[in-house]
């Protein structure tokens, strides 16, 4: 059971890291660079459903912030659920 909890934690932290990296790369790197394109391909399926509900406000996209909160919430719920079985 500990292995599953550890896997969930590592997976969630990896997603949060990629979301944060996506935000940083969008600030400092042009959109045609391979690194930015690769990260965007991984992150966009997570961000697109959120972007349908939360539109950019004054040119600022808040979907990565919401995605990080959702990933953390799902991680917390899964760990609590699995810890209840131990």
Describe the structure.
The mean pLDDT is 93. With 86 residues, this protein is mainly α. The N and C termini lie close together (8 Å). It contains three helices and no strands. Helix 1 crosses helix 2 (34-53) and helix 2 packs across helix 3 (63-84). The chain has one domain (2-84).
Keyphrases for this structure?
single chain, 86 residues, 3 helices, mainly alpha
Concise description?
The protein is mostly helical. It contains 3 helices and no strands.
If helices are DSSP runs of H or I spanning 4 or more residues, what is the number of helices?
A: 3
Distance between the termini: 8 Å
Number of domains: 1
Helix content: over 70%
* Structure summary, number of beta strands: 0
Low-confidence stretches: none
**Beta-strand level of the residues, as a percent range?**
under 5%
Anisotropy-based shape: elongated
What's the rounded overall pLDDT mean?
A: 93
Q: What is the string of SSEs from the N terminus onward? A: HHH
How large is the radius of gyration?
15 Å
How would you sum up the major sheet? none
Helix- and strand-based class? mainly alpha
């Amino acid at each position: 059971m500990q292995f599953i909890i550890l896997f969930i934690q590592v997976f969630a932290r990896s997603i949060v890291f990629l979301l944060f990296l996506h935000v940083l790369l969008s600030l400092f790197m042009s959109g045609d660079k391979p690194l930015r394109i690769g990260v965007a391909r991984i992150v966009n399926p997570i961000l697109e459903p959120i972007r349908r509900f939360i539109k950019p406000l004054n040119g600022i996209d808040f979907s990565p912030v919401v995605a990080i909160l959702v990933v953390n919430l799902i991680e917390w719920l899964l760990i609590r659920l699995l810890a209840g079985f131990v």
